[in-house]
Write a structure and sequence with these properties.
The complex is a heterodimer of chains A (286) and B (237).
Chain A: H1 3-27, H2 34-58, H3 72-104, H4 108-123, H5 126-139, H6 143-168, H7 172-180, H8 185-220, H9 238-247, H10 251-280
Chain B: E1 5-12, E2 22-29, E3 34-38, H1 45-53, E4 60-64, E5 69-72, H2 84-88, H3 90-93, H4 99-112, H5 128-141, E6 146-150, H6 158-175, E7 178-183, H7 186-192, E8 195-200, E9 203-209, H8 221-235
Parallel strand pairs in B: 3-7, 3-8, 5-6, 6-7
Antiparallel strand pairs in B: 1-2, 1-4, 8-9
Helix pairs in contact in B: 4-5, 7-8
The chains are: A mainly alpha (286), B alpha/beta (237).
């Protein structure tokens, strides 16, 4: 397997072990106190906001002119539009990653052929493909599609390789049990493979969605990739607002946009990923 | 009476391996027998059990066995996301049985292995011995003609092992099922089985008949005599 994935896999195992240990620790007193969870999951995001605020305060982009500034309400709407874009890309990535991972580990021949192919595809810089993808979607007058597609590609391989790792650690005895009790075909998929993949799917999803947020600025500011592109061709979202705010020296808009983005990511971590990580423990093989 | 399991000149060579894991293995097992396959690690006893289970196919020879063969695995091999109840019901779910029948069978088998009070628990909440009992209940739930046990005591402490020994003998005598167990502990084989097959270097080395009454006690002279007899052959080069 590609060195990067080997490292990623090891990191994930350590991460999983940490979560596993944490689970056992929490098992005595779970749920942990609300203040403890707030502290754990919001401290990092709040530190980022504070840092951005301090940088903007001491090194302002320019005068904070109210002319043409975007309201906080509009930033929140844009952030939700961005979140929807990431969500659609994520769902598509999961729907594609599961069959790809299962196919790639279905037998020795498939593994020998597909895993190196996935490695190569994953190694291709996504942004190098972006101009081509945009031109393709311009033909259909569907620029949102270009952004979703680039987000989808950035998420896909994270999930695929995490799931491949998950499929490889299913104990042989579990597959024997399925065979002996006649669990085959579609029943094997739904009763063995999919449940066994839940912990890796959650871990892979966290990595993938984080990757999506990383790419959001590039994915929404399309004018850079269109010959003679204008700001009108950018997609409405928190990513493009951030770029415009920085370019237009709108410090307040910039800080508000970062704040809204951090709050959305923090809330999602707190109410979705944390719950899913805890839920996924029951699917983990010892 | 016809044998329930019959192996004739069975051999197994894995793809890419130069030497065979098993060669020219022939023996038969009668209905209701308790047979223990013993041998050193890598000798071929687990491969033999997998062939009988239908998990592997022989590369040579023939195996005749009943359709319904169930197996219990070393560490229980329970599905961690299912409750004890659902783990035991695993083999019944594909049979389109009525839920009341599933409930009745699962309750009966859990009671049989003294685990009825744990049916809503998950495997993570169970000890090694309890998981092994649930694995045995799951195998018994499909009413197999033959029950295969792959080193069921390997991960258990002495107290759990002794308790499970007694339970397995009780279940065997109650149900009169044919049991084939793999072990590498001679005392274990002598205390449970009525025939011990020594598997060495991929072949049957010797078959020992154990004619001791149950319950068998390790302190008894006859028990130690049988153990010593097998041990001599076990360690013979």
């Amino acid at each position: 397997m590609h060195l990067f994935h080997a490292v990623q896999y090891e990191l994930m195992k350590q991460h999983s072990r940490h979560i596993h240990n944490a689970h056992h620790h929490f098992a005595l007193s779970y749920p942990v106190s609300f203040s403890q969870r707030i502290y754990t999951f919001f401290l990092g995001p709040l530190a980022i906001v504070a840092l951005v605020y301090l940088i903007a305060h001491f090194f302002p982009f320019g005068s904070t002119s109210p002319v043409g500034e975007i309201s906080l309400r509009l930033i929140i709407i844009a952030a939700f539009e961005t979140s929807a874009r990431i969500a659609v890309a994520y769902v598509l990535a999961v729907l594609c990653a599961i069959p790809l991972a299962i196919l790639a580990t279905s037998n020795g021949t498939a593994e020998a052929i597909l895993l190196p192919v996935f490695d190569i595809l994953e190694s291709i810089p996504i942004l190098a493909l972006f101009p081509v993808i945009i031109m393709l979607f311009i033909n259909f007058n569907f620029l949102n599609g270009a952004a979703i597609f680039i987000l989808f590609l950035s998420m896909l391989w994270n999930i695929v390789f995490t799931l491949v790792g998950g499929l490889k650690i299913i104990p042989k005895d579990i597959t024997y049990v399925a065979h002996i009790f006649g669990i085959r075909g579609f029943a094997y998929l739904t009763r063995v493979l999919l449940p066994a993949l839940v912990p890796q799917l959650v871990t892979g999803s966290i990595l993938a969605v984080a990757q999506g947020w990383n790419l959001i600025i590039v994915a929404e500011v399309l004018r850079t990739y269109i010959p003679g592109g204008t700001a009108a061709q950018d997609l409405f979202g928190v990513g493009s607002i951030l770029v415009d705010a920085a370019a237009g020296a709108q410090t307040t808009v910039f800080i508000e946009s970062v704040l809204v983005m951090v709050v959305i990511i923090g809330v999602f971590n707190f109410f979705v990923w944390q719950k899913l990580l805890h839920y996924a423990q029951q699917f983990r093989f010892e | 009476m016809q044998p329930i399991i019959e192996l004739k000149n069975v051999g197994k060579t894995y793809i890419g391996e130069k030497t065979s894991a098993l060669h020219d293995v022939s023996f038969s097992i009668m209905p209701g027998e308790f047979v223990c396959l013993i041998g050193a690690s890598g000798g071929g006893k687990t491969t033999l059990l997998k062939l009988i289970a239908g998990l592997e196919n022989p590369t040579e020879g023939t195996i005749r066995k009943p359709d319904v063969v169930a197996m219990s695995f070393q560490l229980g091999a329970l599905f961690p996301w299912l409750s004890v109840f659902e783990n035991v019901a695993l083999g019944l779910r594909g049979k389109h049985m009525h839920e009341t029948d599933v409930l009745r069978i699962v309750d009966r088998e859990l009671r049989n292995v003294n685990m009825l009070g744990f049916k809503d628990k998950h495997p993570a909440d169970l000890s090694g011995g309890q998981r092994q009992r649930v694995g045995i209940a799951r195998a018994l739930a499909v009413d197999p003609a033959v029950l295969l046990l792959d080193e069921p005591f390997s991960a258990l402490d002495a107290v759990m092992t002794a308790e499970l020994h007694d339970d397995i003998v009780r279940i065997w005598r109650q149900t009169k099922k044919t049991i084939v167990m793999v072990s590498h502990v001679i005392e274990e084989a002598v205390s449970l089985a009525d025939r011990v097959i020594l598997v060495k270097d991929g072949a049957i080395d010797q078959i020992f008949q154990i004619d001791l009454a149950y319950p068998r006690r390790e302190q008894e002279a006859a028990f130690m005599h049988d153990v010593q007899k097998i041990r001599r052959e076990f360690f013979k080069k």
